[in-house]
Design a protein that fits this description.
The complex is a heterodimer of chains A (978) and B (222). Chain A is of the alpha/beta class and 978 residues long. Chain A is globular and about 85 Å long. Classes of the chains: A alpha/beta (978), B mainly alpha (222). At the A-B interface, β2 and α26 of A face α1, β1 and α12 of B.
Chain lengths: 978, 222
């Protein structure tokens, strides 16, 4: 039995220091423009006006039926289509939900290998991007709008001019291309214009992976990891749990760590990293190493694993212990272990990891090698540099930029913007009139992937088709249509192009295969074949360099956890989503460790100037526990100038400091203090649970010894003991019998804090965004709060995640205090929220011990643009101002399933109702179902001995319960951490 | 010292109080009357439509089943207002030149949709599902009235929450055999009158479904 005083978890530095963190949330006068007295004056006036206007008739509405009903459309019933989203040179198969031709929700496609049904926050939020009113809406040529036919004619004229010179002076710049059909088209174009060149650049590139493979094998190969059979995983500054467009890794990793009945043991993750990631947060043994030290650690680990590395790696004593322990564990689990290098690390780290995996006989078991997923993989930093130099030298007459935003995100030393101005024909095709588009004289709006035909390959090479859910809203064109216009075919359709490409690939009946691929969302049998690679003799490459100087300040660049490289800047869902670790919204910040902040004498929200090589960037500081000392992380993706109404002006632009050589980290920056302050909207201390044992954790050893380790004795005042507060369930209190009793269980051992559920919930339940100012006031509306807790010292704390939403108390404290009966129980155990009854007293929220009720302080949804309204789920009420709202277990999905089951004269099957968060979760941490059925999956999960309810001592009888978090640290190391 | 108020003040005070109460009462009564009047509820108010479609003629006269046009009523939340194509199935041949049907022909030609004025409507926060009712023997007539007698569509019920609850509290009175839900002239026979209609529709109060669950908020609100 643990005691409540054992709990030493904290969320913010202030809390750890024992300071009181004020709660801003429900102070209605928490604003600057209205005093309490003025509020009373205004409200009495408003009451008079509103009561006079209350007697109105319902407005006359129109019914506009189809003229000719499209095939398969049944009004009121959604349709689902399999399509594909690409991000960062990888594809993820998604299922798009369409309501009468209007896509409203994306989820992972269970048949697609990169998803298996799970998805990440980017995939969840992508549908909002489709309806973004700031998307590019018109074709522009030399500053004036133009028709496509005319534009296509002038593109063709440009191409003809180049064709006469074999393509001399013509350049194409793309992001890495994973579309086989598009690549074939570009190849054909370059073949016809042999002097033309194809450049590729994306700021979050895989150059180090590529160079590492070249170093170790002499050829470029992609590593495909299998986490399922991996018992021991060592992450060398890798963030594989947040791999873009690949939640499969998170799923496989979690499947080894469910700690459920019948699962055998638990894998162990070692992690060495500089800038905290969710992968590091899940690690059982994490060490903090500066970015430059990781190479030394990798070399020491490689030596310990039997790889001959020349030189003596310099590793601190604490790190050495970690290296030894990890090496022993790796060797003990030969063939079932895995070393994963991070793409932020040097090529040598990658090569060493390959060598270790080979030495540990992991190849073919936990890692396999395939040809690169992207077509013609290149060193992208070089590619963009060469292009910039050629443009500078006047060798380029026409540059065709298909996607990407190099003016904003190219390395600062290549001076892309300046070089671009020397090009005569600057043609850009993209979703936004962004930084690059605004410097081009031709801009063609791009079709969103939900508007286009196409194809793309996933991490393992599996191809899947992209099919449109809606006609282009703004006349967008796909890359392949633009390219076809250059060749004189203005009326080319991507549909024909993709079909033509695959027609050549399919054996047998093409039409049947095509239909099946579209239906299932996967081209079967298209995964890349394993590539047999031989390790080059270590003597030729495995040399470890000199140790870095510990005192020099290092700067680290990372893609932002919500904005990625900046492409999601104008996506409100992602802007407002608290970042998994820092819990920042709407901004980035310079992350430093507490020790470094103390040494520099800087505080949270203080603006510092980071100076390097004559350039500087001003950034507000945010102290991130577990960050390496003498290092500062600058997240990319902010500080945009042409992002749109939401994205422009948020955060600072870290690209302005990022060089092309050491793109991920380098030493030697200087930090100057300024006396400026910058207010950040951070949610980490919102709805603080005041030090109660909310998250319960144990090591594997402890969990195996004491099966009831999550059961903590809490002191409850005598007058509250065994008091049944009853339900205010109206006529049928406390709980009337029903056919189903819904309940949820969340496995904290599996949850990795990735935020997929948060956005999924927002998309499913029409949850509004509130903006930075309101987040600062503690009024964010997310129904799921993904809490992040720290345990231990600030230097390298353990990190825990806990999704917290309405737990549907059986005896709900909110219900008894509602004066208008707007929240009441139903027979199936749901704590219903009746929005149209709510008058906004907020009593319920004040009485909610879990702080999971959210109030619409303003009219958030009426004011959005018509296109944004199209993303709303028609099955869920759109709430107005003055209404409380909260999680309802996706009651719309339950109702739908209940009606379907009743119509078919059967019961709802176990697993038939899945909540939005459950579907989205890549780690399968969320279980939902009928708890009155002892054979349902959720009942079995809840029967686990380490199942516990949040604040159970209050007699609230929560329907959502948690399985305590189990970690599997190496006992040889657990006593000390660096 | 003389009296501050004269004798008449008593009467005046009583009079004032009664007048205020009376006016207040009239005000409240008036408000109720207005809210309940067909001016506000629109019950039994005919609405003009782009084409004066007559249910009386099509249903009552020709005997076309509801589901010929409202195709999704058994499977979806929405019964579905028929597309122009459905009209044209017959009116390509019959009354092909009738001036009354010009908007239909125009729509068919141009692809421009026809905007009908909605007659029966529940507020946006109510999630009424047609299929759930149709498949459990609640007739169209229960909510929409005898449409076979309506030359133009009108509302016969307020469709307010009170109306829904009356039936959700005691569904027996509105249940029919499923085969008869679209039958405009159905009358219960003696056998049906004696039957437990809930059991007939597979709803066993003790076994699997409490009728009072029908008054749960989540039944209709999400």
């Amino acid at each position: 039995m643990k005691n409540e005083s054992d709990n030493k978890m904290w969320r913010s530095i202030e809390e750890q220091e024992g300071k009181h963190v004020p709660q801003a949330r429900f102070n209605p006068f928490n604003n600057d423009f209205l005093s309490r007295r003025e509020f009373m004056e205004w409200s009495s006036g408003m009451v008079a006006v509103l009561s006079a206007s209350a007697c109105t008739r319902m407005p006359q509405q129109k019914i506009v039926p189809y003229n000719k009903t499209p095939e398969k459309v049944v009004p009121g019933k959604p349709l689902y289509f399999a399509t594909t989203m690409t991000l960062n040179g990888r594809a993820i198969g998604v299922l798009a939900e369409s309501h009468m031709g209007r896509p409203t929700k994306l989820d992972g496609n269970a048949l697609h290998p990169a998803s298996l049904g799970g998805s990440d926050a980017y995939a969840q939020a992508a549908v909002l991007g489709l309806y973004d009113p700031d998307r590019s809406q018109s074709l522009n040529m030399a500053g004036s709008p133009m028709y496509w036919e005319n534009a296509a004619a002038s593109l063709n004229a440009i191409a003809k001019n180049h064709l006469a010179r074999r393509g001399e002076g013509f350049r194409i710049l793309t992001e890495p291309v994973v579309s086989p059909s598009l690549a074939a088209q570009i190849d054909a174009f370059v073949a016809a214009n042999p002097a033309a060149q194809w450049h590729q650049y994306e700021p979050v590139h895989r150059d180090t992976e590529r160079e590492g493979a070249l170093m170790a094998f002499g050829e470029d190969v992609a590593s495909v990891y299998a986490f399922k059979p991996a018992e021991v995983v060592v992450s060398l500054d890798s963030d594989f749990l947040m791999e873009p467009a690949n939640p499969r890794y998170a799923r496989d990793f979690a499947s080894n760590r469910t700690m459920l009945q019948g699962s055998h043991g638990m894998s162990r993750l070692y992690s060495a990293e500089a800038s905290p990631t969710i992968t590091g947060a899940k690690a059982d043994n994490r060490i903090v190493a500066r970015a430059s030290e990781v190479e030394q650690i990798a070399a020491a680990l490689a030596q310990a694993c039997g790889v001959s590395v020349q030189g003596t790696p310099s590793v601190t004593a604490a790190h050495k212990k970690w290296v030894q322990a990890a090496a022993e564990d790796l060797k003990k689990h030969e063939g079932a272990s895995l070393v994963v290098p991070g793409r932020w690390q040097t090529p040598l780290v990658h090569a060493l990891a390959h060598a270790m995996n080979a030495r540990l006989r992991n190849v073919g078991k936990t890692v396999r090698y395939t040809a690169p997923v992207e077509v013609h993989s290149v060193a992208q930093s070089d590619s963009i540099k060469r292009l910039a130099l050629d443009m500078q030298a006047g060798k380029v007459e026409t540059v065709l930029i298909l996607g990407g935003n190099p003016v904003y995100n190219a390395p600062s030393d290549v001076k892309f913007s300046e070089s671009l101005s020397k090009v005569k024909n600057r043609i850009h095709c993209g979703l936004y009139v962004d930084e690059t588009a605004s410097q081009c004289n031709y801009h063609i709006p791009e079709a969103h992937f939900l508007e286009s035909w196409g194809d793309a390959r996933a991490y393992d090479g599996t191809a899947s088709l992209i099919q449109p859910l809606i006609a282009p809203l703004y006349g967008g064109k796909t890359y392949s249509e633009v390219l076809a216009a250059f060749s004189g075919d203005a009326n080319a359709k991507s549909y024909d192009q993709v079909r033509a490409y695959w027609k050549g690939k399919a054996g047998g009946d093409f039409e049947r295969s095509w239909t099946r691929w579209l239906n299932e969302g996967v081209v079967e049998g298209s995964a890349s074949a394993d590539k047999r690679v031989a390790l080059r003799a270590e003597g030729s490459w495995a040399k470890v360099g000199r140790a870095p100087t510990a005192t020099s300040m290092e700067v680290i660049f990372r893609p932002d956890a919500t904005m990625f490289d900046g492409r999601f800047s104008n996506n409100g869902w992602l802007q407002e989503m608290p970042k998994p670790l820092s819990k920042l919204t709407w901004d980035n910040a310079a992350f430093v460790s507490a020790a470094t902040a103390a040494a520099l004498g800087i505080k949270n929200e203080q603006v510092i100037r980071i100076v390097w090589g004559g350039k500087s960037v001003d950034a507000p500081v945010w102290i991130l526990p577990g960050h390496a000392d003498n290092s500062v992380t600058l997240p990319l993706g902010y500080g945009r100038t042409h992002a749109g109404r939401l994205g422009t002006g948020t955060g600072f632009n870290a690209y302005s400091l990022r060089p092309s050589g050491s793109t991920w980290s380098f030493a030697g920056v200087e930090i100057a203090k300024t006396d400026k302050q910058y207010r950040l909207a951070n949610t980490q201390s919102h709805a603080n649970m005041e030090g109660r044992p909310i998250v319960r954790t144990a090591t594997l050893a402890k969990a195996q010894k004491d099966h009831h380790w999550t059961h903590i004795h809490m002191h409850v005042p005598e007058r509250l003991q065994n008091v049944d507060v009853g339900t205010a369930g109206g006529e049928h209190a406390p709980v009337a019998p029903a056919q189903y009793q819904w309940g949820m269980a969340i496995n904290l051992s599996a949850c990795n804090g990735c935020n997929s559920c948060v956005v999924a919930c927002q998309a499913e339940n029409n949850i509004p965004n509130v903006g930075k100012e309101e987040v600062i006031r503690g009024r964010e509306m997310h129904w799921i709060n993904l809490d992040r807790y720290y345990e231990g010292d600030t230097a390298n704390p353990d990190t825990h995640f806990q999704p917290r939403m309405c737990v549907q108390c059986e005896t709900a404290p909110c219900e008894v205090v509602c004066p208008v009966g707007a929240t009441a129980h139903d027979n199936e155990g749901l704590n219903n929220m009746v929005y149209n009854r709510c008058v906004g007293t907020k009593y319920c929220s004040n009485n909610c011990p879990y702080k999971v009720r959210h109030f619409n302080f303003f009219e958030y949804t009426k004011t959005i643009t018509p296109s944004m309204k199209m993303v709303q789920n028609p099955d869920v009420t759109v709430r107005g101002r003055g209404v409380m709202e909260k999680c309802t277990y996706c009651v719309q999905r339950i109702s739908e399933a209940r009606i379907t089951a009743k119509n078919e004269g059967r019961k709802i099957r176990d697993g038939e109702v899945k909540t939005a968060c459950q579907t989205a979760c890549p780690s399968q941490a969320i279980f939902f179902g009928d708890i009155s059925n002892p054979n349902s999956l959720v009942s079995k999960i809840k029967a686990e001995s380490h199942n516990y309810g949040l604040l159970e001592e209050l007699n609230t009888k929560p329907r959502t319960t948690y399985l305590g978090k189990v970690t599997n640290p190496n006992t040889a190391l657990s006593a000390e951490k660096s | 010292m003389s009296q501050l108020f004269g004798r008449s003040a008593n009467t005046l005070a009583l009079l004032t109080i009664s007048v205020v109460l009376l006016l207040g009462g009239i005000g409240v009564g008036l408000a109720y009357a207005i809210q309940g009047s067909s001016y506000v509820t629109e019950v039994n108010t005919f609405k003009a439509q782009p084409v004066p479609f007559s249910h009386q003629h099509h249903v009552g006269g020709l005997g076309i089943d509801c589901r010929y046009c409202h195709t999704s009523v058994e499977t979806s939340a929405v019964a579905g207002v028929p597309p122009v194509d459905t009209c044209m199935n017959c009116h390509k041949m019959m009354w092909a030149d009738a001036p009354m049907l010009k908007p239909i022909r125009d729509a068919h030609k141009t692809g421009e949709a026809i905007e009908w004025n909605q007659v029966n409507k529940v507020p946006e926060f109510v999630y009424f599902n047609h299929s759930a009712h149709i498949n459990k023997g609640v007739s169209c007539v229960s909510c929409h009235g005898q449409v076979n007698e309506m030359p133009l569509m009108r509302k016969t019920q307020t469709l307010y929450m009170g109306f829904c609850l009356d039936c959700h509290r005691n569904p027996q009175a509105n249940l029919r055999p499923v085969e008869a839900v679209t039958d405009m002239d159905w009358h219960p026979d003696e056998e049906w009158k004696k039957k437990d209609k809930l059991v007939h529709h597979g709803i066993h109060p003790k076994k699997n479904f409490e009728v009072h669950q029908l008054t749960n908020c989540s039944m209709c609100h999400r």
